[in-house]
Amino acid sequence: MESTPMTVTGAKELESELRNLKEVVRPRIVNDIATARAHGDLKENAEYHAAKEEQSFCEGRIKEVESKLSRMQVIDVTKLNQDGRCVFSTTVTLMNIDDESETTYQIVGEDEADISLGKISCNSPIARAMMGREEGEEVTVKAPKGDINYEILEVQYI
């Protein structure tokens, strides 16, 4: 089974989600099913069917999160060799060489990626172009609209 890299924050969020699903959501759904059963005929009981569907979704998500947690490899960027290179979990500030615009991204695992929060997947083209590079280096990202050239302005291990 292949391990999946994850940041410390991402691992904590998954563990918190699993705890919530098991300790809050699951018991509430069981209670909803019991309440709906008390209403009588289950064939035409929309509340019962909705609760059973929610239960199915919840149990599936629990299995999915447990699987991710069993395969994860937590990487604490603060404990890495801070030699200025872009690696998993570093926060990198880039400057687009063409228009001089600056962007900051954190390189994270697939499940943690959220571009609106500045978190990009370690498997994304931009992250792959940056990996192993240092501050001051230029990188070229192969994008659908053509190559984009960036300069790495800063690499942070936070």
Overview of the structural elements:
The protein has helices spanning 8-38, 46-71, 125-130; strands at residues 4-7, 72-75, 91-96, 102-108, 119-121, 138-143, 146-156. The chain is an alpha/beta fold and 158 residues long. The protein folds into two domains: 4-75, Helix Hairpins; 79-156, Roll (Chitinase A, domain 3). The strands form two sheets. The chain has a five-stranded mixed beta sheet with strand order 5-4-3-7-6. A two-stranded parallel sheet has the order 1-2. The protein starts with a strand and ends with a strand. The mean pLDDT is 92.
Per the CATH scheme, the topology name of the largest domain is: Chitinase A, domain 3
Q: Look at the structure and give the CATH class of the largest domain.
A: Alpha Beta
Mean pLDDT score, rounded? 92
User: What is the end-to-end distance?
Assistant: 29 Å
Question: What's the CATH architecture name of the largest domain?
Answer: Roll
The low-confidence runs, each spanning 5 or more residues with pLDDT under 50, are none
Indicate the radius of gyration in whole angstroms: 22 Å
